[in-house]
Design brief:
CATH class of the largest domain: Mainly Beta
Number of helices: 2
Largest sheet: 8 strands, antiparallel
Number of domains: 2
Strand content: 25-35%
CATH topology of the largest domain: Jelly Rolls
Amino acid sequence: MFKIIAAAVALLAMPVVGNAAQIVLSPASVVGSSGFYTACCNFNPGSILDQQTGAVTESFGAGYWLNPDNGPAAAYITIDLGAVYSLSSISLFNTSNGAYGDRGTGSFQILGGNSVTGGMINAPSVAASGVLAADAPSTTRTAQVFAAAGSFRYISFNPTGVASFNNPCCGANVYGLNELRVEGATVPEPAAWTLMIAGFGMVGVAARRRSSVVTA
C-alpha cells in the first residue's frame, strides 16, 4: 500500500511545465502586423526575430522594424510561439535607426492569447509591459529584460510610446524595435494530460485490487 501511495504522490509531484528556456523563433513566426516603413528600405516586422542568438547588431536599414511615418498609433506585431508556453521573461532590444538615433519604442505592452483572427490575438491578456530606454546609436544593441507571465501560443508586441536618443523624426508614432527574444517553459499538450489522468486511474485500480486481496 505504501508503494502505491508513493506512486500517487510522485504523479502529483510531476511538473506541469518544463524548464524555462529561450523559445526558438524566426521571421517566419510573425503571423500579423500593422505595416512597416518602406520609403527607402525593408524595415519589416520579421526583422525583430532575425538575431535570436549572440550579440544583436544594427546598421542603417538592416535587421530592425520601423513603424511608418505618422503610422498607426496602435501598431502591433503578432508572433506564433509554435506551441503553448508558460512565459517567464521577454528581452527587447531597442533601435536607434542606425546612426540617426531618431526612432525607437518607449512604453509598450506584450499581449498574449491562444488564437488569432486576421493576425490579431483574440481576447488578449497582458503578458508583460514596461518602458524601454532609448538606445544610443551604436553597432551593438542593449538587451532590456522584462518579467512575463501567463501561458500562451501567441504574443503581440504593442508599442504605445516613442523613445529616441535624438529628437524623433518623421511625424508621430515613430516606433521601432531591433530584436525580441522570449523565454518560457512548455505546457503539456492535452494528450499528455490524458496520460497523466490514466496514470492516476491505474494507481486507483491497483489500490482497490490490493485492498480486495488483503480483505479476502
